[in-house]
Amino acid sequence: MYRRILLMITAITLVAAACGSSTDTAEAPSTTLGTTTTMEVTTTVAASPTTSSSTTTSSTTMPEFSGFPVTIEAPNGPVTIETQPESIVSLSPTSTEVLFAVGAGAQVVAVDNQSNHPADAPMTELTGFEPNLEAIAAFGADLVVIMYDPGDVITGLEAIGIPVIMHPSAATLNDAYTQIEQIGAATGHTDDAAVLVSSMKDEIAATTASTDGSGATYYHELSPDFYSVTSVTFVGALYTMLGLSNIADGADPDGYGYPQLSAEHILSEDPDMVFLADTKCCGQDAGTVADRPGWDTLTAVQTGAITGLDDDIASRWGPRVVDFVSSIAAAITEFRDS
Amino acid sequence: MTGEEIRPSRLHWWWLVVASAALVSAGLVAILLGAVDLDARAVILSIADRIPFVDVDSGLNNRQEAILWELRMPRVVLGGVVGAMLAVAGGSYQGSFRNPLADPYLLGAAAGAGLGATIAFAYGSGLPSGPIDTLPLLAFIGGVGGVAATYAIGYSVKAGRTPVTLILAGVAVAAFLTAVQTYLQQRNAETLREVYGWILGRLSTVGWGEVWLVLPYVIVSTVVILLGARRLDVLSVGDDEAVTLGVDPSRVRLVMVLAATLGTAAVVAVSGLIGFVGIIVPHAVRIVFGSSYRVVLPLSVLFGATFLILADLLARTVASPAEIPIGVVTAFVGAPFFALVLRSSRGLGS
């Protein structure tokens, strides 16, 4: 019984980490940077026609002729898509962001209740945790993107002829890029996806080149009970790229990547910087952190090196990874200057 | 009837001394050990420094002092308070219902508190905040509400009302509340991990605030339960016999269960659902020292505190510096330990 619950927690942590929060973004931390980056990317993509369903009037080259049927080597095996999908259902918040960023937004008919970005994504009551096959089919889906199969979703949908791409949490940036390219190929936006990926690579390369966090340590908080990430995780690797050292490394004997730290450990490690990925879910900010018992002795609390992150951006592996890297880089710059 | 035999015995004063010594030693070990190594001598000096009129330099820096006094110490104290309360409440429930399997969560306290906690996790940010945090408040209300609903249903039974009726009502209430809780949890999937973390119990984020929050309830409940020990002994001969001995069974039951529920709901509100303590500790005491509630209840207070302090010590050191949920430890360590006690007790006059 307890073992089962533990296993569930393990699974749930992954999923929950991937989902962030469904609360309104109005209370997002003020330090959220780099929205400009996303805009830039979107514009790039929008330069090529996105309304693929009614594109006969468009004069530019049409990516949708790029070879349907296509076969995608998805993590759940080869997926063959016969014609360009017009009714995509996404049950993954990250994939929803990707779909819109590669210009396939107009082909999306429904997204799950956690897909809160972009704002014009057609959010429904569908859930990625307990997907209902009939509800998905009722949207007339001709392509379904999920990040996790709780049981027989893939089998069930394929049995009624709906191709399913499963894109689980990316382990590396390259995984994330591959997912974007696959979504691009699957939706007829191969070129847009390539543009997006190369612009992301450029942005991240530029940020990492101009930021040096080496020598500084950090603590990335997933929840107020001190769940954290180590450097083996997707998010942790991004910090590593910027030169920071993680105080949770070594606190994760099984190498699972998401250990629950003890407050004692955090205080004793005295991280130079604290990043909160629980601002939206759990209302944490520099003030609540300083109020925790004993935390007023932390150097980061005293110097104000506490950065509130957007939970969603910090837990997804889509186009807004660029924004995440920029916020961390900005925090590092501020830390260096102070 | 459960076949539980009465082995009348007095509470010897030296049992209390032994139990208190065990508690103090466990507390000391728990304060000395933790995720962070603090020099044992420095810790002792730091404790001595807090004694009025004693002024010594412990050699700990500010942060180490904070670790010791604002993280470790309240946690050990709260572990003791929660363990004592759950154990004595378990004993009280077992006596009230003459059911060896009764635990403090029997009448819907756990399911109610779980529902309250889930509401707090899912909608807490939207609720007005008062002087007490939403989570302990709603968990407390849920726990008390669950038991109140059980009583309301149990007492609405007109004919053939027995303790079993109440237990069955508890089963129904718990099932219903758990269903609501699971539904809310699925609707707010992002809270799943927090909710499960809470259900497995945790002492990990506590400070002194939680200790002061629950202590009044725990003291009142424990005193009421201890004062009722003699009546529980009378009750153990059966309701009819108890009446002839001048004790009103349903009244005793009501008082004992209410006291146990109040205390349980208070500790559950800050520590989550820590299982097994309420069953293992009173039974172990009963097997070793005798089955009179005048023995079981006071010793359960002391050994319950000792047990949970040690369980929490394991929870925060075994995977150090990561933590494992304390509910896992109490079950993982407690169940085999209990089996051992059960086994070695065979033929010891029970």
Oligomer: heterodimer
Radius of gyration of chain B: 21 Å
Secondary structure category of chain B: mainly alpha
Low-confidence segments of chain B, ≥5 residues, pLDDT <50? Answer: 1-6
The count of helical stretches of chain A stands at 14
Number of helices of chain B: 14
**Fraction in beta strands of chain A:** 5-15%
Return the string of H and E elements of chain A.
Answer: HHEEEHEHEHEHHEHEHEHHHEHH
Write structural notes for this entry.
The complex is a heterodimer of chains A (338) and B (350). Chain A is α/β, with parallel strands linked by helices and 338 residues long. Chain A has 2 domains: 19-34 and 212-337, 3-Layer(aba) Sandwich (Rossmann fold), CATH 3.40.50; 51-188, Rossmann fold. Chain A has helices at 2-19, 35-46, 93-101, 133-138, 153-159, 173-187, 190-210, 234-241, 263-269, 279-282, 286-291, 299-303, 311-315, 321-337, and strands at 70-74, 77-81, 88-90, 108-111, 143-146, 164-166, 217-221, 245-246, 273-276, 306-308. A 4-stranded parallel beta sheet of chain A has the order 4-3-5-6, sandwiched between helices. In chain A, strands 8-7-9-10 form a 4-stranded parallel beta sheet. In chain A, strands 1-2 form a two-stranded antiparallel ribbon. Chain B is an all-alpha fold. Chain B has one domain: ABC transporter involved in vitamin B12 uptake, BtuC, CATH 1.10.3470. Helix content of chain B is 72%, strand content 0%. Chain B contains 14 helices and no strands. The relative contact order of chain B is 0.17. Classes of the chains: A alpha/beta (338), B mainly alpha (350). At the A-B interface, helix 1 and helix 9 of A face helix 3, helix 7 and helix 14 of B.
Care to give the gist of this entry?
The complex is a heterodimer of chains A (338) and B (350). With 338 residues, chain A is of the alpha/beta class.
Attribute tags:
heterodimer, A: 338 residues, alpha/beta, Rossmann fold, 2 domains, 4-stranded parallel β-sheet, 14 helices, 10 strands, 11% strand, disordered N terminus, B: mainly alpha, globular
